[in-house]
Amino acid sequence: MSESPQGADQRPASPHRAQSSRLWRSGRGAQMKLLAALRGEGALVWSGGSIVATYELDVFARGPMKTGSGQMEGDFSALVDSTPSAIDEPCSVPAHLRLDDGREIEIDLVSLEPYSAEFEARGSSAGLLDATG
User: N or C end of the chain: smaller count of CB under 10 Å?
Assistant: First the structure.
């Protein structure tokens, strides 16, 4: 029974299949290019202190505009405890991410849990990431 059932689609795979690349198309047709994937041990810094955290930060460009987003792991329970709605909605605490090379970028916490957080780099900070390494 190595034959396929009658009526099965036996067209060959399209030779024009998109190859894997570091470019993505948005709904408006603009391409997003991955500029850097930064990983390291840094710190989440805010007015109340700092917490050591490992981070993953991806920096993208869409034309001249740069954006960054990522996630962190660490013990954020002290920050969660001081921000009552932190788990349910984005955090309004101004924060920075200190990278392992000493640079600091302004971030908005999109999600905050006791041991993980997701963030987006603010517009001006994403520009700081021009020299990504």
Answer: N
Taking alpha carbons only, the member of 106, 85, 97 closest to residue 50 is: 97
Return the number of other C-beta atoms located less than 10 Å from residue 97's C-beta.
25
- What pLDDT digit, counting tens, does each position of 21-62 carry? 444 455 555 688 998 899 999 999 988 789 999 999 999 888
Of the candidates 96, 114, 79, 103, which has an alpha carbon nearest to the alpha carbon of residue 44?
Answer: 96
**How far separated are the first and last CA of the chain, in Å rounded?**
56
* DSSP state at residue 10: -
d(CA 21, CA 124) in angstroms, rounded, equals 27
Q: What are 68's two structure tokens?
A: 């960054």
Measured from the Cβ of residue 95, the count of other Cβ atoms closer than 10 Å reads: 21
List, in order, residues 6 or more apart from 16 with CB less than 8 Å away.
none
What are the C-alpha distances in Å from 92 to residues 9, 34, 60, 87? 53, 28, 24, 12
Q: Are 126 and 84 in contact (CB under 8 A)?
A: no
